C-alpha cells in the first residue's frame, strides 16, 4: 500500500514539513480548491501543488477531488458542458502524474453531521451524527454544521427543489452517463476513478443516495465495467450503515481489483437509531474491526493508496474538524502497524 495524507494546499494550517516527518508517508492527497465545479482548473495552481509537495519528498498521485457539479448529477442542459470541463481536468492531472481521482455523486451534501465538535469522554472532540438531532432539523429552514457557509439559504432551497423529482434510478443513470463520457480519458492517461460512498449511507432530506452498500457497488461495476471505474473504500462512511459488512466488502472488491483508495477510520455506534461518533482509529475504540478490514485488503491483493480519515482534535489542537494533524498522524502510525502485521501474517 501507499500511505498518503489529505492536504488542503497552501492555505492548510498543517505545513508539509510536518507531513514529511510521518513514517512511511509517500505523498499527499490534494486538489485545486479555488475554482468551482464545472470549471477548468488552472494549470499553474496544479503545478504549484505538485512542486510544493515534491520539495518535501512527497508525491501527488491522488486528487480528492475534482468536484462533480450538481448540473451533471441533475442532468441539466449544462451537463455536457461541465463534463467537458471535467474531461479537461482529468487530462490535466493525468499529465501531472495523477493515478487516482476520488470523487462522489451525492446530491447537494457530500457529507452530513449534526455536531462538528462532539465532546468525547477523553476530552477530545470529533464529528458526530445524532439521529435525534437530525430529526429536529426543519428541511425548509436548514442550518447545518459545516454547511451554513457553503450555500446561501436561497441557493440551498433551490437545489433541494431541483432534486424533488429526481429518483434513485435517474440519479444512477446520470452517474453512468457521466462515467461513460469520461472513460476514454481515463484509458488514455491510466487514471482510476474511485467513487466515495455516501456519507452517511442513507437518503437525507429526500435526496437520493445511490452508492451506499454492496448491491449499489455491484450495480455500478456491472453498468460501467471499465477497469478504471472503481471505489474508495471509506470504512467510516460505509461503516455508519450497520448492515454493511466492511471486511467482506474489502475482500470482495480488492479481489476484483476495484479498490483504488482506502479511507481508514473508525466509528462508534451510540444508539439504535443510526447515531455514531467518530473516534480514534483503533479497533477497541469503536464499532469496526479495523484489523479485519486491513487483513482482508492485504489477503486479497490490495496495493492501492491509503490515508487516515477523519481524526479527533486532541492535545489541545483547534484544527479543521476531522482534519487536525495529531490524531491523523497517530492514525498513520496505527495503519502502518496494521499493514505490517497483516503482511507478515500473510507471508508466514
Characterize the structure shown.
This protein has twelve helices and twelve strands. Helix 4 runs parallel beside helix 7, helix 10 packs parallel to helix 11 (290-299) and helix 11 crosses helix 12. The strands form two sheets. An eight-stranded parallel β-barrel has the order 1-2-3-4-7-8-9-12, surrounded by four helices. Strands 5-6-11-10 form a four-stranded antiparallel beta sheet. The chain is of the alpha/beta class and 348 residues long. The chain is 38% helix and 16% strand. The chain has a single domain (2-347), classed as Divalent-metal-dependent TIM barrel enzymes (TIM Barrel, Alpha-Beta Barrel).
Q: Gyration radius, to the nearest Å?
A: 19 Å
**Total number of helices:** 12
Distance between the termini: 19 Å
CATH class: Alpha Beta
- In terms of structural class, how would the helical and strand content be classed? alpha/beta
Total separate domains? 1
CATH superfamily: Divalent-metal-dependent TIM barrel enzymes
Order of helices and strands: EHEHEHHEEEHHHEHEHHEEEHEH
% residues in beta strands:
15-25%
Low-confidence stretches: none
The CATH architecture name reads Alpha-Beta Barrel
The total count of strands amounts to 12
Give me the CATH fold name.
TIM Barrel
Biggest beta sheet attributes: 8 strands, parallel, barrel
Strand order of the largest sheet: 1-2-3-4-7-8-9-12
Query: Mean pLDDT, as a whole number?
Result: 95
- Helical proportion, percent range: 25-40%
- Shape from CA axes? globular
Amino acid at each position: 500500500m501507499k500511505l498518503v495524507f489529505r492536504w488542503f494546499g497552501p492555505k492548510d494550517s498543517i505545513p508539509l514539513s510536518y507531513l514529511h516527518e510521518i513514517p512511511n508517508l509517500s505523498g499527499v492527497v490534494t486538489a485545486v480548491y479555488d475554482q468551482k465545479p464545472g470549471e477548468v482548473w488552472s494549470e499553474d495552481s496544479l503545478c504549484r501543488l505538485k512542486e510544493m509537495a515534491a520539495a518535501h519528498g512527497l508525491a501527488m498521485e491522488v486528487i480528492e477531488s475534482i468536484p462533480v457539479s450538481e448540473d451533471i448529477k441533475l442532468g441539466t442542459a449544462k451537463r455536457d458542458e461541465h463534463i467537458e470541463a471535467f474531461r479537461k481536468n482529468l487530462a490535466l492531472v493525468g499529465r501531472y502524474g495523477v493515478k487516482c481521482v476520488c470523487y462522489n455523486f451525492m446530491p447537494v451534501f457530500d457529507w452530513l453531521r449534526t455536531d462538528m465538535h462532539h465532546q468525547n469522554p477523553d476530552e477530545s472532540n470529533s464529528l458526530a451524527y445524532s439521529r435525534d438531532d437530525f430529526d429536529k432539523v426543519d428541511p425548509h429552514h436548514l442550518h447545518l454544521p459545516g454547511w451554513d457557509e457553503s450555500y446561501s439559504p436561497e441557493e440551498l432551497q433551490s437545489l433541494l427543489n431541483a432534486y424533488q423529482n429526481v429518483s434513485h434510478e435517474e440519479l444512477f443513470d446520470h452517474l453512468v452517463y457521466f462515467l461513460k463520457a469520461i472513460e476514454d480519458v481515463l484509458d488514455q492517461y491510466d487514471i482510476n476513478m474511485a467513487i466515495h460512498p455516501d456519507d452517511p449511507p442513507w437518503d437525507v432530506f429526500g435526496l437520493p443516495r445511490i452508492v451506499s452498500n454492496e448491491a449499489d457497488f455491484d450495480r455500478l461495476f456491472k453498468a460501467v465495467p471499465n477497469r478504471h471505474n472503481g471505489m474508495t473504500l471509506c470504512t467510516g462512511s460505509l461503516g455508519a450503515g450497520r448492515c454493511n459488512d466492511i471486511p467482506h466488502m474489502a475482500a470482495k472488491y480488492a479481489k476484483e481489483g476495484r479498490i483504488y483508495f482506502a479511507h481508514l477510520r473508525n466509528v462508534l455506534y451510540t444508539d439504535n437509531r443510526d447515531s455514531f461518533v467518530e473516534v480514534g482509529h483503533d479497533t477497541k475504540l469503536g464499532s469496526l474491526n479495523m484489523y479485519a478490514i486491513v487483513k482482508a485488503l492485504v489477503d486479497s491483493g490490495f496495493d492501492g493508496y491509503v490515508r487516515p480519515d477523519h481524526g479527533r482534535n486532541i492535545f489541545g489542537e483547534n484544527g479543521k474538524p476531522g482534519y487536525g494533524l495529531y490524531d491523523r498522524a497517530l492514525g498513520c502510525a496505527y495503519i502502518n502497524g496494521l499493514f505490517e502485521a497483516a503482511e507478515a501474517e500473510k507471508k508466514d
